[in-house]
Design brief:
With 143 residues, the protein is of the alpha+beta class. 22% of the residues lie in helices and 27% in strands. Strands 1, 2, 3, 4, 5 and 6 form a six-stranded antiparallel β-sheet that branches. A hairpin with a 6-residue loop joins strand 2 and strand 3. The longest helix has 12 residues. The mean pLDDT is 79.
Length: 143
């Protein structure tokens, strides 16, 4: 019985030796997985102009909308960027400049969150979203 247990322990101890960094022949090594290919950078100005409601609430009446350059999202293959605008509360009181981080995957904004003081959106450079793009987006029917 002891010989059987010792043989099983010896066999199981070798399971971790066949990883991609072991000194075994290539055919015995576990293949390292290839990282997923990255998406192409989105046209952020057009995306935000066409989907303002994905970033800001309908009653906030965003004006002077500006976007940062898209960066690869470190959590996956998508993109992340910062969006800034002048907003108004539902009772008409100006809220001032508000900044949101948007998360883009498969060419669509799938999440957003308001940034905090320690977010790198504070130091980003912003470009205005053309008012013509915003006006076109507001006139076009929503799908």
């Amino acid at each position: 019985m002891a010989a059987l247990l010792a043989g099983a322990a010896l066999m199981l101890s070798g399971c971790g030796l066949a990883d991609s960094h072991a000194v075994w022949p290539d055919m015995l090594k576990v293949k390292a997985t290839e990282p997923a290919p990255l998406e192409t950078p989105p046209d952020l100005k057009r995306l935000v102009a066409g989907k303002l409601d994905s970033v800001f609430t309908a009653g906030s009446q965003p004006t002077h909308v500006r976007v940062s350059a898209p960066l690869h999202d470190p959590r996956g293959t998508g993109w992340t960027a910062c969006v800034r605008a002048e907003l108004t509360s539902v009772i008409g009181k100006p809220l001032g400049t508000q900044t949101y981080r948007v998360f883009i995957n498969d060419g669509a904004i799938f999440d957003r969150r308001q940034v905090e003081a320690d977010d790198n959106c504070v130091t980003e450079t912003y470009e205005p979203v053309e008012s013509s793009l915003t006006a076109d987006a507001q006139r076009s029917p929503k799908p």
